[in-house]
Each structure stands twice: as C-alpha cells, then as structure tokens.
C-alpha cells in the first residue's frame, strides 16, 4: 500500500500535564500595562494570556526530560550528570572543552571578559542584545556584517542570516589585529530568526583561516538552522539533521550557547571550544562567577534535562512541526495584509511595525506602540525589536534602528494551533485599527539594555 499523505502537520506529541491560562478583560489589561509603565517586560505574567515575549526558557519539557530530572546527581564536583550532559553536547558539537553556565549571557560574559577589551572589534552576522552589551561592556566594539538582504524586511532569500563575506574580509584586512574572534549567530535572532547556510559558514571559515582568526557560533537555535539547511540548501535535502549540526560545529572553533532555546531547557547554557589555553582562562572565571566546572551555575538535574532535550530537538518530526507551525502564523498574517518579515523565521514571526504604523516616527517607537496594542486588545505579549532595543548608541546618542519589528516568539511545544489562531485574530484586529495608534516617549531609562526596564508614556 502506498503511504497516504495529509496536508496537516500535527504536533508530534499529546498533552500530559496542563497549566491553566488566566482570562482577563481589556479594561484590566489597560490598567495593568499603564501600571507597568507601558513596558511589557514589567507586567505580571499572570496578566498575560498568550505569552510570546520570548522562546527562551518557556518551552514545555517532555515526559522524558522530567524523568531525567529525577536522575540528577547533585554532587558538587564530578557529578555523573555533568558527564551525561557533556557527552550529549559532544554528540552534536564535538569540542574538546564543554563548560556549563547558567544561561547564554553568562557564557558570553566569560568569553568576552577573556577576549574583549578596549580597542577590540567583534564581528557577527548580527549581535543579539545581550551579546552586543557583553562585547561593549568590555570596551570592545560590536560590528554587524549580515548580508544586505538580511537588512530588508521583505524578500525571498533562503539564508538571510548569512554574513557578508567580503565585508568580513575587508574588516579583517583593515583591523584584523584587533579582532579576537568572529561570531556567527544561528539562526540570526535580531535579523528575524533567519538561517545561515553551510556554504556561508564555510566561506566565513575560509576568511577566518586566511587571517588566522577563530570562529565561534552563537548557536541557540542550531537545530532550527539545520532544518532550514536541510529544506533549502542545494545538496542537503534528506540528510540527518544531527549530521548537518555536526558539519556546522566542525566549521567553528567553539561556541556560546543558551540552552533555554533549542536544548529545551528552562535554564542553562554553555561555552565549548577546542583551545586548551582559552578554556583554562574561561574555567578560571567560571569558578569565580558561576561555579565549579562540572556544574557551572546549574543543578545536576538541569544538566540531565538538557542532555535529554538535545536528543529530542534534532528529531525530524519535531522540527518539521516546529518550523511549519511558525510559518503557519506568518503566512496567515501575510494573507491578511499584516506586514511581516519574510521569509518567516524559525522561532518567531516578526511584524513590521514601521510599515504598519507609517504615521509613527521611529523615535516614537512604532514597535512599542504595536506591542502595547496587541497586549491591550488580546492579552498577547510580544517583544519590541527595534529602536527601543537598539536605538541608544554607546556614546549616548539615539538613532532609529535598522528596522522596527515586533517579535511574536513561539515557545517550544507550549501552545496549540487554536492558541495561534487566536493570536492571528488579535493581530488582524489591531492591524485594522493601526492608524489610531500613537507613538510613545521614554520617561525613564537605565544606562544600558533599556528595553527591559524603561518606562513609557503615549505621545499626545
Ligand atoms: N544569543 C542569542 C542569539 C539569543 O537569542 C539569546 C537570548 C542569547 C544569546 C542570550 O541567552 O538569554 O540564555 O542569556 N535570547 C532570548 C530572546 C532572551 O528572547 O531572544 P540567555
């Protein structure tokens, strides 16, 4: 019998344990968001109905991850849970040294404390906000070198996360002796969750080799990136995603990792590399700030959950569902005329707030305006990725970001298709009233990473 094929891509799991959602009224949400200074990070999560603020640490763990937690060994040094974790990491990323941290930015902090400093320059396709902040905090400069297509909100380039290889070559020729490491973020979160091709990684590695530079991956969403490679890159169709991940790893000298994304953890991260001397320096700092090298700020049970999560995230049924369900939201919004960044990324759909609210100038934060409106209308929490997040330069000046986006980040295995149908309806509802939305001004802001805590008020 031939295998019948069906159009619907289903969740490759059923639900084992449920959490209630708290329904609220629009009046309640309006009061809550005013109370939070119109900053969605400052809301009580209980006042949120569908939380698409981030896909970080918000996924649902599997039965087998919860079982692995029971297996956790909490020995201070040399816990068997560490070796289970290390081997699961090495199965995909066969680096000599695997150093756990409590999350991704802790790995960044340690690495850039060792490699950064005044006068240094770190190129990346696009730095994520904490990565940029950790580079700049050391006095170094963070430079984004994504290809020109990656800066356009629309288009059909299959790998909009790629790095501009000739721009990298030019930078290394001009300032190479100040560059301690070249970074590639897979997928490129700040650029719309867009993938990087193996061919581009290979070309970047060749340029790094020519200049004697090390290449590191910021690999939070490595499995989603590998699935896009399998789907889109010539010659990659039909390959096992784990093999593609190992190819990605082999092209780099090391990595920083937030295990709160693809490894399906609620907490965790790591640093990995081949270089013995660099690993030694990182471990010394790790002991100062995170903990002993076999737990690095995590409990043994966390390490076990991550090891199991790494085995689950590379399963094809999961990745097919994951990437398809994100595209489902993006395609529905696109059909409804809501401007979205295309192609749709892996972990999130990005609304183009600047296109939807042309009457709100970038320095009045169209992304903030749209994000607050989505919350007020339907209790959907999203995240501004635009001028609020990136507009304040290290010298204190304020400039519009390249794009003003609102990210609907989709937690892994957490929401069902009807939740997403509701989100689509809320977005359509707000888009129909877009011309009524006003801009915002900032009334208080911290010196760095202002988006997390700033207070806003509407411009009259
Ligand atoms: N790198 C990238 C590409 C990220 O997306 C993140 C986190 C980090 C590093 C830092 O990792 O949170 O474990 O310290 N991104 C989350 C987000 C917060 O919402 O996109 P972390």
Summarize the structure in words.
The chain is an alpha/beta fold. The chain is built from 16 helices and 14 strands. The strands form five sheets. It has a five-stranded mixed beta sheet with strand order 2-8-7-6-5, with helices on both faces. Helix 7 links the parallel strand 5 and strand 6 (215-218). Helix 2 (63-70) runs antiparallel to helix 11 (300-313) and helix 12 packs parallel to helix 16 (417-432). The protein is globular and about 60 Å long. The protein starts with 25 loop residues before the first helix and ends with a strand. The model has no long low-confidence stretch (mean pLDDT 96). Ligand F0G binds next to helix 4 and helix 5.
Which parts are unreliable, with pLDDT below 50 for 5 consecutive residues or more?
A: none
Strands of the biggest beta sheet: in what spatial order?
Answer: 2-8-7-6-5
Radius of gyration: 21 Å
Mean pLDDT: 96
Q: How many strands, what sense, and barrel or not for the largest sheet? A: 5 strands, mixed
Strand residues, percent:
5-15%
